[in-house]
Amino acid sequence: MQARFIQIHTLISYPAVLLNRDDAGMAKRLPYGGVSRTRVSSQSLKRHWRKAQDVWALEAIGAPMAVRSRMTVEREIMPNIDAAPEVKTAIQISLAQFLFGEKNVDPKKPESTDKRQALLLGQPEIAFLTGLGIEAAAAGDAKAATAFLEAALGKGEGKKNLAALKDSAKLSFGLESALFGRMVTSDPAANVDAAIHVAHAFTVQAEESESDYFTVVDDLSGDDAGTAGIFDTELTSGIFYSYVVVDVPALIGNLGGDDELAGKVIEHLVHLIATITPGAKKGSTAPYGYAELMLVEAGTAQPRSLAGAFREPVGKAGGVAEAVTALAKQLVAFDAAYESGERRAALSLCEAEIPGVTAPISLAALATFAAAAVRAG
Fold this sequence. Notes:
- By secondary structure, this protein is an alpha+beta fold.
- It folds into 2 domains: 206 residues, no CATH class; 107 residues.
- It contains 12 helices and 11 strands.
- Strands 1, 2, 3, 6, 7, 8, 9, 10 and 11 form a 9-stranded antiparallel β-sheet that branches. It has a two-stranded antiparallel sheet with strand order 4-5.
- Helix 3 runs parallel beside helix 5.
- The chain is flat.
- The N and C termini lie close together (6 Å).
- The relative contact order is 0.19.
């Protein structure tokens, strides 16, 4: 039976790390339940899942991918266009103004990207715009090239913009957009609603942090101390709860109605959530960890987070087993009150019981369970 929603709950433990920093270089935080928690932003989590490089990487699925950048025109499109310098400049300005807005592109400094916001474009869209640029170059001069692109990308029934391409080609906007959505201010009809909703992860305990003082030693100084610099950084520890919701019909719709592809995407996503670490300072903290609990729920009722299980912080000495017990207690309360009837499966490294789960299974089996719940029939 195909689920309406897939909910993925994860507990993962990290010691002495700095997973996600704020603008001051400190660990991101979240006040919850009257105490401060260490936090990892949803943007950070999604970025690491998007860019992961292993057998379960999103790009290993084989679907068209996307590029998020302010420099897509300059780095991805213009190198493929052969024309006189003034013609190339005219094409660059026209394409950049279409993608990022006229106010954000200075014709006198077309190479400047300071006013632009990074835009997520699918590889088919990049190829489409490259083709228009090549056609514009064939127009002969800068004025004719600009006129061609204004006609092709401007308003009217004949326009060849991203929205038109989105409606005519499967996954023209790239797999990442199909999963996590995108906003195109210059072409609102090309916007894509996110099918996968990701909460900020936070520690189930009150924050645990310290300032790490360290020095850099100069091998050639000749000084006994040999100190070339004195620094400090924040390190944190904790068990993080994360929560992800998959809107199954929205995902299948974004994937052009292909539920087999949707199942494959979710299989990969479950592996990525369980094993991919969002981490700054990897060279000095090796912040690698696997999920110690991953609970997957498949059902038709509206989703609900289990974050309330940790409104009262787990004791500082409490481990994953105590966190799982708190999560299970919250689940029992929800089941009794709402009787929403989700099907459940879980990976667990501890012996705590979870309602609706007969026995823990492997990550591969859990990913298969989630994928099957997405496919029809």
